[in-house]
Design goal:
By secondary structure, the chain is an alpha+beta fold. It has two domains: about 5-100, Ribosomal Protein L25, Chain P (Beta Barrel), CATH 2.40.240; about 105-225, Ribosomal protein L25, C-terminal domain (RNA Polymerase Alpha Subunit, Chain A, domain 2). Helix content is about 25%, strand content about 35%. The chain contains six helices and 13 strands. It has a six-stranded mixed barrel with strand order 1-3-2-6-5-4.
Length: about 240
């Protein structure tokens, strides 16, 4: 069963960066509706209303009825892209795709895992989710809201595959059946290499530097200096 939401919109005649900036200063977001047999339609939507809506729906697979000012019938759409500012908490642009009733479309359906697997509770395993969204193809009225799995009975090294998904026969799954959606695996053990103490490394480095400086200045190393004049003289007599 598909999920629907509503959003008010206004047509806009001005396009370009300057017009878009003016809209955002007024608390509105520039947007466009494309797809179907008609040309793209530039619109604007209320920024606060849009943010509130996008936070409470699954954007990828929720049908949005755009109630365009001056039009009697809403435009049935899917949100295809939401552009946000890189560091400000605001929307920059939104793309809506116009839906044709009865024509199949491709959407991503969120996958939710419910419960704690037995392999985690009793064997210390880790639940890994590989597929978070399942791509499907169907007519708009058949779009699933989400795909739910109860994973409480999942043992260590067991997995749930795409072939385990049960959907309406009219919904085509666009992933191979052998693809794993989630699995319970043993935790990874990372062996840390022993660290050399910083003080020891620093001491070795300093000793080496002192000896090099002494030789450069022509000083006699301590070991040779301790031999004394007598031993040096014996060396000369030989």
């Amino acid at each position: 069963m598909s999920v629907k939401a509503q959003l008010n919109a206004k047509p806009r005649s001005e396009t370009g960066k300057g017009a878009a900036r003016r809209l955002r200063r007024e608390g509105r977001v520039p947007a466009v509706v494309y797809g179907g047999e008609t040309e793209s339609t530039p619109i604007s939507i209320d920024a606060g209303e849009a943010v509130h809506l996008f936070r409470r729906i699954s954007v990828e697979n929720t049908l949005v009825d755009l109630k365009l000012e001056g039009e009697d019938q809403p435009l049935v759409t899917l949100v295809r892209e939401v552009q946000a500012h890189p560091y400000k908490s605001e929307l920059v642009h939104v793309d809506f795709y116009r839906i044709t009733e009865g024509k199949a479309i491709e959407v991503d359906v969120p996958v939710h895992l419910n419960g704690i697997p037995q392999g985690v509770r009793e064997s210390g395993g880790v639940l890994e989710q590989i597929v978070h969204e399942l791509p499907v193809k169907c007519i708009p009225s058949k779009i699933p809201e989400s795909i739910e799995f109860d994973v409480t009975e999942l043992e260590m090294n067991e997995a749930i595959h795409v072939s385990d998904v049960e959907l309406d026969p009219d919904v085509e799954i666009l992933l191979p059946g052998e693809r794993a959606i989630c699995t319970v695996v043993a935790p990874k053990i990372v062996l840390e290499e022993p660290e050399v103490e910083e003080e020891e490394e620093l001491e070795v480095a300093l000793v080496g530097e002192e000896e090099e400086e002494a030789l450069a200045e022509g000083e006699v190393p301590e070991e040779e200096a301790e031999e004394g004049p007598g031993e040096a003289a014996e060396g000369e007599e030989e």
